[in-house]
Design brief:
Blueprint (H helix, E strand, L loop, with lengths): L46 H9 L15 H8 L3 E2 L21 E8 L12 E9 L6 E5 L5 E4 L3 E4 L2 H7 L4 H17 L5 E6 H11 L2 E5 L3 E9 L2 E4 H7 L4 E5 L2 E5 L1 H9 L8 H18 L9 H14 E4 L5 H7 L8 E4 L19 H11 L3 H7 L9
Parallel strand pairs: 1-13, 2-7, 4-14
Antiparallel strand pairs: 2-3, 3-4, 5-6, 7-13, 8-12, 9-10, 9-11
Helix pairs in contact: 3-4, 5-7, 5-9, 7-8, 11-12
């Protein structure tokens, strides 16, 4: 059965990158500060670069040079982004501070590797990230949950956690139902309720990066692509490359830092086979990609070029589905105007290595990782990181 929402009525339309619904009424409270936002004396990164860390993706589609009077531009920029109920009853209640944005903000970010030939109910979430923003609203943390973590999925018993998305998407519930069941599973496991969520189609990221031109990625260890090969010098999916009947040359990501085109950056962020720490290295590489996109969008007047700005709007619309917890997106933007792309801190679960469960047959979250999620719930993550510096990612 589809997972139903208790916070808001479920959408009646199918979830899709092009689908849109009007913004839902805010659950309570006023815009932080109680009135129109004032122009900041010190210029910071463009507004959409700040919004990036809220949704964990590059939505940086408008300039923050003059926040006052930019509502029309913000409305235009967000018009291409599908908004759906992705949280169900895993959203924060009013008692947990869900009625306003004055306190800490917790977002669930789900990365899916969806391709056109795949059915909507046959997709798993291979990237599961919790984004925590403390009540000070001046910092953001990305914490990845390993895809193979053993978890109790409501209604489906104990399975790998990335199966929750697939289970929830069945019986016509689609990506909306998949995200709701994933959020419910994580809440049951960690105790964290969410203010919002995003489904990121990593295939759509290629268009965003291509619009940016490239992103700077540092490859920590050489790895052969498990997914792509060159045919006549052109990168192709292996399945498509085989159909050509021509010679296939493996795509190899060499160690070192370089500017990568969209296809290369995306392919590198997908790799886990052949890496020393497997999925843990992939988690850090995906976090690195998000941060690199945020940085690139603030360079060279990218957000003040109308042509490039319009291209970013369209690309983001193809890559993202959002849930702001019933809070108008404009309010979320104003709340996050103090957070910049450089304020992203990437954290590791399980020390960045496989952690076996009690039987030694499956993966589990370590006691330290569970303490980290408790610190998120209590908005004490900065103190936890200070006391446990080994949780910091080794990626830049």
């Amino acid at each position: 059965m589809p997972v139903q929402a208790s916070r808001r009525p479920p959408s009646l339309e199918p979830v899709g990158a092009a689908a849109r619904v009007p913004s839902q009424p805010r659950r309570g409270g006023k815009r932080p500060g109680g009135g129109p936002a004032k122009k900041r004396a010190r210029r910071k990164d463009p507004l959409w670069a700040r919004l990036t860390v809220v949704f964990g993706a590059v939505l940086m589609l408008t300039s923050g040079i003059a926040i006052v009077g930019s509502k029309a531009l913000i409305s235009q920029a967000t018009g291409n982004i599908a908004q759906r109920n992705l949280l169900g009853d895993a959203g924060k209640s009013d008692a947990e501070g869900g009625a306003n944005l004055d306190g800490p903000i917790d977002m669930l970010l789900l990365g899916v590797d969806a391709r056109e030939r795949w059915a909507a109910d046959d997709v798993r979430a291979d990237s599961i990230i919790v984004l925590h923003i403390p009540a000070s609203h001046d910092q953001a943390y990305l914490i990845s949950i390993p895809r193979d973590t053993e978890a109790e999925i409501p209604g489906h018993g104990v399975e790998k956690i990335n199966s929750a998305f697939q289970f929830g998407a069945q019986n016509g519930a689609g990506w909306e139902g998949g995200a709701q069941l994933m959020a419910k599973t994580i809440k049951k496991m960690t105790g964290i309720s969410f203010d919002g969520a995003s489904i990121i189609n990593f295939g759509g990221f290629k268009k965003i990066i291509d619009t940016l031109g490239s992103v700077r990625i540092c490859v920590s260890q050489e790895v052969k692509s498990h997914h792509m090969s060159y045919v006549d010098g052109k990168p192709m999916w292996n399945a498509d490359a085989r159909k050509t009947g021509k010679k296939m040359t493996p795509v190899v990501h060499k160690k070192g830092c370089r500017e990568m085109e969209g296809w290369a950056a995306l392919d590198y962020s997908r790799q886990r086979y052949g890496l020393d720490s497997g999925d843990y290295d992939r988690q850090q590489n995906q976090q690195q990609l998000i941060k690199a996109m945020a940085k690139k969008a603030t360079e060279n007047g990218m957000l003040t070029n109308p042509v490039k700005l319009n291209g970013l709007m369209k690309a983001a619309g193809n890559a993202l589905v959002l849930d702001t917890g019933g809070v108008p997106m404009i309010d979320m933007i104003y709340t996050m105007r103090g957070v910049t792309g450089n304020d992203l801190t990437m954290l590791r679960t399980n020390g960045g290595t496989f952690h076996a469960n009690a039987s030694g047959t499956k993966e589990a979250l370590s006691p330290q990782s569970m303490e980290m999620f408790q610190a998120i719930k209590n908005d004490k993550l900065a103190e936890f990181v200070y006391a446990n510096p080994d949780v910091l990612s080794t990626r830049k």
